[in-house]
Amino acid sequence: MEKISIKTTVEGLLSLQETGDSATLLGIGPMSRNCVQAALELSNEDDYPVMFIASRNQVDKDEFGGGYVNGWDQFRFAQAVEEVAEEISYDNMYYLCRDHGGPWQRDKERDEHLPEDEAMRIGKESYLADIEAGFDLLMIDPTKDPFVRGKVIPLETVITRTVELIEYCEGARKERNLPEIGYEVGTEETNGGLTSTETYETFINRLKDELAKRDLPMPTFIVGQTGTLVRKTEQAGQFNFNNALELAEMAKKYKVGLKEHNGDYLDDVSLLMHNPSQITATNVAPQYGTEETRAYLKLAEVEKTLAERGLIESHSKIYDVLLEKSIKSERWRKWMVGDQVNLTVEDILANKELSEEILDIAGHYTFNDNDVKEEIKKLYDNLNNHNIDGNRFVINHIKRPIRDYAEAYNLKGSTTRIKELVNN
Fold first, then answer.
1. Residues 336 and 234 reside in one and the same domain
2. What is the pLDDT of residue 148?
3. Count of structural domains within the chain
4. Which residues pair with 54 in a beta bridge?
5. Is 403 contained in some domain?
6. pLDDT per position as a tens digit, 278-325
7. Which helix (H) or strand (E) holds 154?
8. Fewest CB within 10 angstroms: 61, 257, 345, 379, which?
């Protein structure tokens, strides 16, 4: 299928909003190769475009530490998605997207308090790899700053850094004669984020002026705060329809789509309100990692029962290995609330209930660990000997929540609707 740019796709969705037949795109965190396959299968089956949104912690250059997802850098990530697409005879449109690109966006860079010029240089080098690997959308997010932690970064600082980074990326793209790419700006952060319509429009106007001075394109998406917030494995926020609609209408005046982040674990009512609120796209990531973890644990229960009946000689240690690795990764800290952020690994290991909660939150951070991969293989082998396709179960398990969102977001058939609109 011929692919159209993400900017054209969003413009098509904005036009379709006038007909009542629009959709909300789904940005999916590529938490694993299984997750990529689940997303592509559904995109193929139900005829809608899909976005893969990779953070710098997930996918990045090896010299910056690589990514925790399969050790992917930008090129290996792009190749892996292409390989899965070929394996399933994919015939739709997928977009490779950088989520939260820019300075200090890797945990290590913030922890080390890199100077601004060094952080900006690294951010640009990471974007260059994105561009050369064929990414379709770059999120320009200079709002993480270790020197103003806990404080609101001045809007002018955000605009200055945003324009500098877009100017760099556009220059790099044109030098290489590469196709048009889209840009995403703003941040979902409640502290200093674009939470009010007044701040949102001020940001858009100031950005528009600065981009115009340099003959740079307007962004494809502007992120706004719709009330969503993910903590642990729950939607801890409250979707705000009125705020979402106001922000979306504001963005639309500038032919830009409203992008929502932290869309994980939303209830059905909130999901169904997304089209009426004219949100153009939603990002969902950790939920799919958690679903994959839960799938492995369900398979482990089956394996355990078979072993107890003497039908399996030696069962895997997938539960124990995932549990230990996820706790020791300490990547769960960003999702915790209150004093739990400061818990020690020893505290958690000594508490069975808390340990299992951490496993649910952070299991997906360990999928690329060699010990974990070895136990998954053993789990699959044991189950395959009893006519259970473990890998198929895992992929289908991830597909369930993606399908729920796609149905509520009116995504089915949206590729055809967009293309018909663009071609007429």
1. no
2. 84
3. 2
4. 98
5. no
6. 999 999 999 999 999 999 999 999 999 999 999 999 999 999 999 999
7. none
8. 345
* Full domain range(s) for residue 313: 289-397
- Give a yes or no: residue 1 inside a domain: no
Residue 318: strand pairing partners: none
Q: Is 330 helix (H, G, I), strand (E, B) or coil?
A: coil
Residues of the chain with pLDDT below 70 are 188-195
> For position 190, what pLDDT does the model report?
39
Cα-Cα end-to-end distance for the chain: 18
What pLDDT shows up at residue 8?
Answer: 97
pLDDT given for residue 294 in this prediction: 98
DSSP code per residue over 184-211:
EEE---TTTSS-SHHHHHHHHHHHHHHH
On whether both 416 and 307 belong to a single domain, the answer is: no
In a domain, 404, yes or no: no
pLDDT of residue 269: 98
Q: What is the pLDDT of residue 195?
A: 60
Per the CB < 8 A criterion, the answer to whether 139 and 100 are in contact is yes
pLDDT for position 188:
58
Residue 271 shares a structural domain with residue 386:
no
Q: Can you tell me whether residue 235 is helix, strand or coil?
A: strand
Tokens of 47: 């005829």
Distance CA 141, CA 148 (A): 15
pTM above 0.90, yes or no: yes
Instruction: Give backbone dihedrals phi and psi of 395, rounded to 5 degrees, phi first.
Output: -60, -45
Residue type, 216: L
8 in helix, strand or coil?
Answer: helix
CB 23 within 8 A of CB 409: yes
Concatenate the DSSP letters of all residues of 46-79 into one string.
HT--EEEEE-TTTS--GGGT--TTTT--HHHHHH
Are 256 and 356 in a shared domain? no
Contact 94, 38 (CB under 8 A): no
Contact 106, 59 (CB under 8 A): no
One domain for residues 268 and 293: no
**Does any domain span residue 402?**
no
Q: Dump strand ranges (E) for 280-392.
A: 281-284
Quick: pLDDT tens for 367-401.
Answer: 999 999 999 999 999 999 999 999 999 999 999 99
> C-alpha distances in angstroms, 275 versus 70, 103, 401?
34, 33, 18
CATH code: domain of residue 12: 3.20.20.70
Query: Exposure string (b/e) for 181-210, b if CB count within 10 Å is 16 or more?
Result: bbbbbbbbbeebbbbeeeebbebbebbeeb
Same domain, 153 and 207: yes
Backbone angles phi, psi at 299, to 5 degrees: -65, -35
The answer on 77 and 17 residing in a single domain is yes
